Amino acid sequence: GEEPVSIQALKTARDGVDGSLTAVLKYRSGAICAVDGGFDAQSALVSEICGTKGSLLIRDTFADTGTPILLTRDGVTEEVPVEPCSRYVLQMEDFADAILNRRAPGFALAETIRNCGIIERILQTAKE
Hints:
The strands form two sheets. A four-stranded antiparallel β-sheet has the order 4-5-6-7, with no helix packed on it. By secondary structure, the protein is α+β, with helices and mostly antiparallel strands. The longest helix has 17 residues, at 109-125. The protein is globular and about 45 Å long. The chain has helices at 87-100, 109-125; strands at residues 4-14, 17-27, 32-38, 47-50, 55-58, 69-73, 76-80.
């Protein structure tokens, strides 16, 4: 994936504790990514990914429920089944198995480092 060419971000904090953050990332291709989250408003736990060919709506993003993902293409929405699971346990099991069996983990180290770099850029850009 490409790196963002520009980032704008705003955040709130109270007594040194993060409250909320909103960021807009712009990419060379023209794609724009909007991210927001916080602890100081009613919890929604929703992720939406929109593209030129459709969108995905992930309800209960961080819950280990079997809530279906909604896939919309050409104005038609279908439910994509999701098995309930303990996703964080599965990530740790995959990582442990990768070490024990000398294989690459499901998420490449380079991708993780890149994601952490983008998060760091967002936090450095964020203004209260």
